[in-house]
Model the fold of this input.
Amino acid sequence: MFEEIIRCPTSALLFGVIVGLLVLRFINSSFSLRERRAPPGPRPLPLFGNLFQVDLKRLDQSLFNLSEKYGPVFQVFFGPKKVVVLAGYRTVKQALVNHADEFGNREISPVFYDFTKGHGILFSNGEPWKEMRRFALTTLRDFGMGRKISEEIIIEECHYLTEEFEQFEEKAFNNTKAIHYAASNVISALMFGKRFEYKDLVFQAMVERDNETIHLTGSASLQIYNICPWLGPLLKNWRDMIKNVEDGKADATKIIKNLKETLDPEICRCFVDAFLIRKKHLEDSKVLNLHYHDENLLYTVANLFAAGTDTTATTLKWCLLYMAKFPHVQERVQEELSRVVGSRQVRTEDRKNLPYTDAVIHESQRLANIVPMALPHAISKDVTFQGYFIKEGTTVFPLLTSVLYDETEWENPYSFSPSHFLDSEGKFIRRDAFMPFSAGRRACLGESLARTEIFLFFTSLLQHFRFTPPPGVSEDQLDLTPVVGVTLAPTPQNLCAFRRH
Ligand code: HEM
Ligand SMILES: *[C@@H]1O[C@H](CO)[C@@H](O)[C@H](O)[C@H]1NC(C)=O
Ligand SMILES: *[C@@H]1O[C@H](CO)[C@@H](O)[C@H](O)[C@H]1NC(C)=O
Ligand SMILES: *[C@@H]1O[C@H](CO)[C@@H](O)[C@H](O)[C@H]1NC(C)=O
Done:
């Protein structure tokens, strides 16, 4: 048979062509198999995926643990939903910075969509996101550097916060609310041109509502809603959340309406004014730009409140808790402040002369790791990353825990050591793996504002007060275990604030 084929020239040719095609196909398929190799990961169960292999109460830590076994790029299934996890400084940076486009979309889950309907900055993509992000960045920058407005706003708020702490006259007290109000007022002054009294009931309700929304979002029933959105109306948490969102919108709409009615295009009082003035310019010059509409204004403002209040307040609470826990560190910060600044108001330009204080703030942010998995990203177009194929639309968690605690980057990842940010002469040094604000296209938009706030609030408070555990509680007994929500907050515990002067 074989001989016959060879003897006949046409069949020989045919045979050759077939073999050739088969070989080509084999090479091709093994090549594309390699191209399309999915990231490794624990074997998922039907329906449940890997839900039983992770600890949902400390998801970031258990994903960090899985990365030891499966490497820096791996996949896990939450129910039927596939998520690709990025772990370790090198990998997270390579993805978010070197492949910024492919890894730069936001995952807009049903809950996130309910918040802003795809408008605003936090939970939007494409052109609308790009335009609003650019606008918010330039506007905040104008308020920040050009005219020093934000520094003045923060310093004014420092006085109110200090006064509030003084009222407790050195007795153990709960600083949570006052710190939230202070952080919220800074955003409010920037957005609306006004701050609120801490006693103002409407203001208290606004802050409380935002906080409740954050907690509801992290609840188990809303995670179920994300997988089966049609269940929404049956879930109490979902109904509560929607009510919160609607009430919040009504409050903000009222304030915005007032600003609209008193708008003078020559005088920009705040972020809302800047938006309205830009909108008017575009309309006057007949430039077609569909992004400057009322919904985008409302949702962008709401996003900046939501992203800027809880994060900053939680960071400050961690800083104070670390000071009470590590009194020798607190003493060194106070010694530096007394020596360099004395008793006058601290200003941002003092930071460069306060290397130890700066290192303590950085180390607090690193160890507190308040946004452990950033916000979920999504792949914007098919990508092959570190040899693995990841499809467009796949959800991605950049595991910031694995960056801030990366053993190859930090000498003592699990302990509080300001020396991570100091050289041998005590000068401040930057560290590449310091990434609490994430990196790349989606990195925190409020980073520079947040850094100014934390620096000024922290130093002002430490100039005025020495923080200690309540009477009868030792430093060792202060609990550094975080409460897990969307952000990692300190376990609720009271502290004392002793006046230093
Ligand atoms: C210590 C305080 C803060 C921390 C630790 C923090 C951290 C973060 C992180 C980790 C993200 C997600 C980045 C990603 O998805 O890769 C983020 C996003 C964001 N942050 Fe912050 N943030 C802080 C304060 C602020 C403040 C004060 C503002 C507003 C003035 C703000 C506005 C935003 C916005 C708008 C986004 C979304 C950016 C986008 O999707 O394009 N943040 N932040
Ligand atoms: C991660 O691993 C460490 C050490 O093996 C273990 O103590 C810890 O409980 C694990 N954490 C989670 C959340 O699985
Ligand atoms: C926010 O709500 C949670 C639970 O509802 C509570 O534990 C937390 O202290 C609240 N924070 C503020 C600032 O009210
Ligand atoms: C402090 O107040 C917050 C917000 O009201 C509350 O959630 C927390 O449990 C309080 N902390 C203590 C130690 O009571």
About this structure: The first strand starts at residue 73 and ends at 78. The pocket of protoporphyrin IX containing FE (ligand 1) is lined by residues 106, 121-122, 133, 303-304, 307-308, 311-312, 315, 370-371, 374-375, 398, 436-438, 442-446, 449-450 (CB under 6 Å).
